[in-house]
Amino acid sequence: TDAEVSTRKKTFTEVQTERLDQAERTVLIKCPSKLNEKKLLQYLSSHGNVRSHFFFENRGINALVEFSEKSSIASLQDAVGIPNAAEHHVVPFKSRLFTFTLKNPVSQPAEETPLHLSPQCHIPVTDLIQKLCHADSISSQMYILLNEYQLTEENIKLRFLACSLVRDFARAYFPDSTVKPFGSSVNTFGKLGCDVDMYLDFHNTRKSPTKMKKGPFEMEFQMKRLPSERLATQRILSVIGDCLDNFGPGCVSVQKILNARCPLVKFSHQPTGFQCDLSVSNSIAIRSSELLYIYGCLDSRVRALVFTVRCWARVHGLTNSAPGTWITNFSLTMMVMFFLQKRSPPIIPTLDQLKELADAKDKHIIGGYDCSFVSDLRKIKLTKNTETLDVLLGEFFEYFGNFDFRRNSINLRKGKEVNKPESSPLYIWNPFEQDLNISKNVNQPQLEKFIAMARESAWILQKEDKTQKIINKEPWGLAALLIPFGKSNSSKMKNRMKGIGSETIRNLLDSLKLNNANSQQKAVGK
Predict the structure, then answer these.
(1) Backbone φ and ψ of 264, nearest 5°
(2) pTM of the predicted model, to two decimals?
């Protein structure tokens, strides 16, 4: 659609700014169960023009309402009362979260047309497999998966609202701070249900240098000095964490994890239903989000392939929401990007090529690392590669099923396999902090399980008789890859594992048996 294309061409920063602004004009209302949509909108319009709204289910019916003017919120807040504090005492913090109940419920007729509720989570894999069987090509199967899993417009609005509500607290202490999402919520690769990573940003109001040059004095604020930036970060997060815990409506299970490499506060935001991680401005993580945003916008095949590979990995227990020796979604995403850089002709440019296109305003040096790359999508030449997703999926499994992981590492800056700088089983260069391996956590058995699954999948795609499977109503194509390969296949797999050290075949088969147990393990953290 034209709308899609026009939103696609915006820079990462433009999209962020627009959405943050939208979120500031937005409120969240817990609605009565017998709700007349027209009456609700009629009432809200008495406070100002309602630009957009949608309903969703989360412990009852909720409405996200975006006004055209920020002043409408103040007008609405003036009309809202404080909860009756008979059995509870309340913390008198007035937020943009309201509960509406009907004054005389009996007289109100129930809604004739049922409300349209926006889904906030994706369908289970079993339902997805059913849908995929009706498609006519692997390529259409992959787009179906993408459509079912990707963040919706409504879900993104809810994510930015969650950030905006946290920002209201941060502003009590730091009036010009902002809270922005980063990572999967904004890099175009987030799936419905993923956590919201957000960061506190104090550099919102960059003073114009001309203003500071005026007058005869060098002027600066007197500020509390601390021995390290890390300590300042820990103190700020500690206080804001306490603040959310003590006063934040709907903020529960607040955990301060201040000794992590990147200190953070984890909490569950009940009104929006999100798990949130709040940290303080992490510039490199933000650059990574923008880099992925650019890759995701350049070609529709990029996102379809990433979503497919990640769903495939999850089904086979190659990834897990608990931290451990598994490959992470971020590493998998980088492997897909690398594969797409290696196609002939390449489907996406290398990071060095994006850096060559950068102009002065794209210059970013962070902690001594050069993180510059072009932000204007129009400057990037589109690919001449016309390979279908059917081809690319098979080739992805083929490529990594036969990759020389012992000798080579994956480098997205160069778009080349380079000799490993050290002996980690899987070495993927951090695109910005060039001395870090983003897959340092992955051990040999996990890598070999990945290789075996990739080989098995390549083999299934090459060998399968699509027509026969469709006649027999058997899952085919992508659907066949999203069913755990199970015990029946383990003998077949042994044959396809020549070249993988025999001592680890045992580990691998054990881990296949464990696979089932793993996928049932409760998600702990990320």
Answers:
(1) -150, 165
(2) 0.90
